[in-house]
Design goal:
The structure holds 2 protein chains of 2 kinds. By secondary structure, chain A is of the alpha+beta class. Chain A is 16% helix and 38% strand. Helix content of chain B is 21%, strand content 46%. The chains are: A alpha+beta, B alpha+beta. Chains A and B meet through helix 1 and strand 1 of A and helix 1, strand 1, strand 2, strand 3 and strand 10 of B.
Amino acid sequence: MIKKIMIGFGAAAMLASAAQAQDSTFGATSTDTVNITADVAPVVRVSGLDDVNFDLNEAFFNQSGPNTYQNQMFCVYSNVSNAGSFSISATGTPAPAYGSNAWAVTNAGDGSELAFTMKVTDSNLDRVVGPGDNWSGFSSAEWNAARPDTGDCSDTGDNTRLQITFSKDNVLGANAGTYAGSITLVASAT
Amino acid sequence: MSLLGFRSLVLVGLCVLAEGRIARADIDSHSVPTVRFLSSMPGHLDWRGRGDVSLQHTFCVESATGHFVLDVASMTGGLNGQTIIPYEVTIEINGRVQTGVISRNSPIFSFRGETSRSSNCLVPSNVGVLTVRLLQKDAMGAVSGSYADQLSVSVASN
């Protein structure tokens, strides 16, 4: 009789052991996965260009050099490559009478035109940008040895230089007055 | 031992047996929390040059204890392509929200949460949202192209 009782306890002990064995899975993990894809579109952005003002007065006429120019640094952001490559073109008022690369500003009084030219450089590539030009091969990483990772070059500093030039010959041939015009620089992903 | 004493001992033995069965059933159904996404559709982030982009996946956590830890692990430590782009991960479940960053230096994001003790994905407190957000600042630092990652979400009892 006692033997039977012991068997009863033995079975209970075995079941208890089985319950404890289940404890070995306690803390195990369950996992599921999800796939994520992303497309980063090619993006180019020009920023930081300001108005450029020239005071073409007697000092300019009396200077020895044939031209006067102003430089302005600005930012081109491009994510097309690690080099941040881009091409440059421009739109504005062409002045073909002054050459294929000439642009015009207009006299507010009489509507006459005064020609100028402009160049863009990334410190390595230097191109005169005239009407119809589209120069490739610029790099937004060239000037500062690093591509900007912000759209306004706040991390690297400006990386492209615009130079606008008036020739003494053209200015001497123009009427006195105030001239104004607008050029739009277009950077494209290349 | 009297006959009465023997019956008592047998009854005690049966009680132990019964308790053993209850304990076993309890462990089987509750000790291992589970997680599964409620949609198998892959998520796509399409950054077009402006702003942050995000996607969401809903998932279900079943935890008998009600307390769990989710580990969100990236296969590549970010969106992998020509470069590796970090991104944000936000887990929201049962009113608790936590955001982390997946990057090469931190490919795993952990979230401690609470949920209903019910093993039922129809219970709202068991359903969470995983948000993946590609920030503009990180997208702008990348080279254009296609990127991918796989997130493994594991759950364990807390």
